[in-house]
Amino acid sequence: MGLPFKESLGTDIVAKQFSSIQLTQNIFNSSNQTTPFVIGTGQVLSGFQSGVFVVINENASLYNNNGGFIIRKKGIYKVEFSLRMKDSLDNPVLVIKKNNIDFSAIVLACFGGVIVGTTTVSMTFTALSNIVECNIGDVITFEAVIKSSTSSIEGDPTIPMSYINIIEI
Amino acid sequence: MSKPYQTETYEEEDDTKEYINLFSLGGETNLSTQRIYIINFTVGTDAYDNDPQTNTGKFTNVNKTSSMNYSNGIITINKSGIYRLTFRGLFFIIHTKAPLFFVKKNGITIAEIAIHVTRNNDITGQLLESFMFLSPIFNINSGDNVRIDVSIENDVGYIVNQNVFLQEL
User: Fold this and answer.
1) Could you give the number of structural domains in chain A?
2) What is the pLDDT of residue B119?
């Protein structure tokens, strides 16, 4: 009987995979339509913006600029969200997908009240995704359901106020 | 009786991961000010010891591994690696404005977090609510330091039972 073989990528990736990305543009939709859209694609239309993320730290190239993480190592992952929400209207929804299939959904919230020193009704919303098992090549994306009556998500190129971590656990 | 035998083998766990766990328990170590204008300080610092209007949330319990040091609000790390910080606390909700927290590495802001809570009562009728936030994942080089700065005024309320957990991933 032969020895059991070890699954391999062709290159040895031993370290736990992780990536942190920072939102550099606001995400909003001024329309009353609730058509979901993938965030982080850089799409800009009149009254609409899907936002742009930049990588701030990772140990392998996981994030691509179409708004998704491409998994480079088989494993179990979780996603952490720290999002600065603006205004306190209805709550938008963020759906997290693996290969375009939902595996987690988060209702984002912004309670009424300004940030100290400002007149802006805004707050940070922190959430964790469900745990998901991934294979090499799987793609994780984030789809938002945001319209004119829901809070927008704030991003800034210099202030790290909204960011997403993906971590192999 | 024969000895149990092992049917699977595992990679040896890295048991050298560093962490520091800082606690402030009880009302005497709350984070608050009665000043009517914004003040900015490092959580846990002794800089306001002579100010009866301000409590900086001093940490009364410090648990840590050998490469971590803590003094006067500053965490110093003597092992390079990938780290992430978690902050937990309770809010006495007699406020209307969100405090701003700044997670800083070597004095540079790596996360800016605004905390709002619902201002609802708990089951005992107290305006009390827990909250938490996460930092992005960030690199540490030996000798780097991490601290949490905060901007508050008297309309921000009291934060108690603060817990800062900085862990190597």
Assistant:
1) 1
2) 82
Residue-number span of the structural domain to which A81 is assigned: 18-168
What distance in Å separates residue B153's CA from the closest CA in chain A?
A: 7
The reply to whether residue A116 touches residue B98, judged by beta carbons under 8 angstroms, is: yes
Which CATH number characterizes residue B152's domain? 2.60.120.40
In angstroms, rounded to a whole number, what is the distance separating the alpha carbons of residues B79 and A106? Answer: 36
Structure ipTM = 0.88
Task: Provide the domain limits for residue B28.
Answer: 19-168
Over the stretch A7-46, which tens digit does the pLDDT of each residue have?
444 445 567 899 999 999 999 999 998 889 999 999 999 9
Tokens representing A92? 């938008």
* Strand intervals (E) in A37-147: 37-38, 44-45, 48-49, 53-58, 63-64, 68-70, 75-86, 93-98, 101-107, 122-128, 132-134, 139-145
CATH number at residue A95: 2.60.120.40
pTM: 0.89
